[in-house]
Amino acid sequence: MKRKQKRFLQMTLLFTAALIFLPDIGLWSLYKEKHLVKPADPAEPQTIPLGLGDGQLFIWTDGLKRKDWHDYESIQKDAMRSGKGEHGKPYPLTEEDHDDSAYRENGFNIFVSNNIALERSLPDIRHPNCKHKVYLEKLPNTSIIIPFHNEGWTSLLRTIHSIINRTPDSLIAEIILVDDFSDREHLKEKLEEYMVRFAKVRIVRTKKREGLIRTRLLGASLARGEVLTFLDSHCEVNVNWLPPLLNQIALNHKTIVCPMIDVIDHNHFGYEAQAGDAMRGAFDWEMYYKRIPIPPELQRADPSDPFESPVMAGGLFAVNRKWFWELGGYDPGLEIWGGEQYEISFKIVPKLDHSLTRAVGKKEKRKKRRKEKKRKKKKEKRKEKRREEKRREEKRREEKRREEKRKEKKREKENNSILKTKSHSFTCLLTTFQVWMCGGGMFDVPCSRVGHIYRKYVPYKVPSGTSLARNLKRVAETWMDEFAEYIYQRRPEYRHLSTGDISAQKELRKHLKCKDFKWFMAAVAWDVPKYYPPVEPPPAAWGEIRNVAANLCVDSKHGATGTELRLDICVKDGSERTWSHEQLFTFGWREDIRPGEPLHTRKFCFDAISHSSPVTLYDCHGMKGNQHWSYRKDKTLFHPVSSSCIDCNPAEKKIFMNRCDPLSETQQWIFEHINKTVLEKFNSKASS
Ligand SMILES: *[C@@H]1O[C@H](CO)[C@@H](O)[C@H](O)[C@H]1NC(C)=O
Ligand SMILES: *[C@@H]1O[C@H](CO)[C@@H](O)[C@H](O)[C@H]1NC(C)=O
Ligand SMILES: *[C@@H]1O[C@H](CO)[C@@H](O)[C@H](O)[C@H]1NC(C)=O
Ligand SMILES: [Mn+2]
Question: Which of 25, 235, 275, 506 has the highest Cβ tally under 10 A?
Answer without folding.
Answer: 235
